[in-house]
Design goal:
It contains seven helices and nine strands; from the N terminus they run αβαββααβββαββααβ. By secondary structure, it is an alpha+beta fold. The protein is elongated and about 60 Å long.
Length: about 240
């Protein structure tokens, strides 16, 4: 029943997004809470599964561990870099599905459910693969996600003009999650040192490119566009992920 429901969701998303999609910006992911005391066995089982079914020429997958916040200790696993059509066309074998179901049944206490994301390339900046990242989920007000994306696009333009050294990815949550209209910003990190305040600051960059008045209005519009946010740091797990090129 669940598999059929997911198939329906994928079909609806594919029909909606396929016409205009020119880039591989689709992704899926979800959280898994592992039974206490079974984490080492879980990681070993997933590593074995990925090596068998998710190699360089197979369906790619990634895994990360949540380091802080309400989901600390949970695993964030999924697949990215797709066209929406890829999900509709994918035909995983029964052997693959049976093996993965066994892993989940043996080691996973709870799952969040699958979320579908679409990367916003023009709002992202210098995005790249890193060993860890800080993800922030914004619970946007109805009709306000577009305003936040507009501000992020202007910020990305300012970063390009100033050749800022930072790196970030911006994603719309298309389906799943706790509410409609969620927005995710992923700030890439090479180490925990990257949590230090950036220089020049966001304010300094905006003021230099657009001026003080434009910056102040952007700040007001930004905070008027969401009800709450949640941040967490995630650490990439190479052995539980498809090898990167």
């Amino acid at each position: 029943m669940i598999k059929r429901f997911i198939g329906i969701i994928i079909s609806l998303i594919t029909c909606t997004m396929l016409v205009a999609q020119a880039d591989a910006v689709a992704a899926t992911a979800g959280y898994s809470k592992v039974y206490k005391g079974k984490e080492a066995s879980f990681r070993k089982a997933v590593t074995k599964h990925v090596a068998k079914w998710h190699g360089p020429d197979q369906w790619p997958t990634f895994a990360a561990r949540v380091m802080n916040g309400p989901r600390a200790g949970q695993y964030f696993m999924g697949s990215s870099g797709h066209y929406w059509k890829d999900y509709a066309d994918r035909k995983a074998s029964k052997a693959h599905n049976d093996e993965w179901r066994k892993v989940i049944q043996m080691y996973v206490e709870d799952q969040s459910g699958m979320m579908f994301f679409e990367k916003q390339l023009d709002a992202s900046y210098n995005d790249r693969s890193t060993p860890m990242w800080q993800g922030t989920i914004y619970y946007t007000k109805p009709g306000k996600r577009g305003k936040m994306l507009e501000i992020l696009r202007e910020g990305s333009k300012a970063n390009r003009r100033l050749r800022h050294k930072g790196s970030s990815g911006v994603y719309n949550v298309i389906s799943g999650g706790e509410q409609d209209g969620m927005l995710v910003i992923v700030n890439r990190m090479d180490s925990m040192a990257d949590l230090a305040p950036q220089t020049p600051s966001i304010r300094d960059r905006w003021v230099k490119v657009y001026g003080e008045e434009v910056f102040e209005q952007a700040v007001k519009d930004w905070y008027d566009s969401f009800t709450k946010s949640r941040s967490e740091i995630l650490q990439f797990i190479p052995e539980m992920s498809t090898p990167q090129n």
